[in-house]
Amino acid sequence: MATQQTQGIQTLLEAEKEAAKIVQQARQYRVQKLKDARSEAQKEIDGYKKVKEEEFKAFEASHAGTTSTTQAALDKETEAKLKEIDDVYKQKKDDVVNSLIGRAILVKPELHRNLKKVTA
What we know:
It comes from Crepidotus variabilis. It is a single chain. The chain is mainly alpha-helical. It has one helix at 2-105. The protein has a domain at 6-74. It is elongated, with a radius of gyration of 49 Å.
């Protein structure tokens, strides 16, 4: 009977070792699957990122010409307005200076309203 018990215990120990090996293999399998899933997800992310960057570059290239054209038109319009303002300044400058000088030398002496006339 002791041999039978020892043999039963030995069988249980072997079964426990086998179960531990199976559990360890399952853990390793799970870890490997997680690594594989992460690397696959990273590949998908990189591919999506590459596609979006190419779309952005194409969009940027198609609109870059529009921006430079618009900037050139605005620069031209600004120059025209500045020239117009300069021309008006040159035309009106003498009139404004003469008007200011005329006001400066126009003197009408009169008593201040707060000054009372002293009657003798």
